[in-house]
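$ ./design --mode recover --in tokens.txt
reading tokens...
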């Protein structure tokens, strides 16, 4: 099986929304996934992602990201989600996706890539530590939902 890692396009939105729902369910919060293809089309200038596509042209994983600025280190890239369909895990696809994010951040002269991992997701934590990430348990998420 060969996997193509490429930048996401508008043509991918419907398939990606389904994967977003899958990821929200995996995280135990399906009710929090309120995004839609219509919303993505309206907000597409803010959406950036790499997708993993298999031989059947099916998107089997994605990594979403955006630029951020951190006062202590400067220009950074924030990876919002990294998700691979369950049947395709442990095949190097997640590694290929995160490597694409890291390479892009380096090309864009970012000083850091940052992301979060759920405290219960030990597999992901092990994976991230294996690639050299430092996982901190110092900060907690603060969300203020506006709509």
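writing sequence...
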């Amino acid at each position: 099986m060969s996997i193509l890692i490429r930048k996401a396009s508008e043509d991918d939105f419907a398939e990606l929304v389904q994967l977003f729902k899958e990821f929200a369910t995996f995280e135990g919060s399906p009710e929090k996934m309120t995004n839609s293809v219509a919303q993505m089309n309206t907000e597409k200038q803010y959406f950036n992602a790499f997708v993993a596509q298999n031989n059947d042209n099916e998107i089997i994983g994605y990594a979403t990201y955006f630029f951020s600025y951190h006062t202590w280190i400067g220009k950074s890239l924030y990876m919002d989600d990294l998700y691979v369909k369950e049947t395709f895990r442990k095949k190097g696809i997640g590694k290929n996706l995160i490597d694409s994010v890291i390479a892009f951040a380096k090309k864009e002269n970012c000083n850091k890539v940052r992301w979060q991992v759920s405290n219960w997701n030990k597999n992901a934590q092990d994976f991230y530590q294996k690639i050299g990430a430092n996982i901190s348990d110092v900060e907690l998420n603060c969300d203020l939902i506006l709509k």
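exit 0
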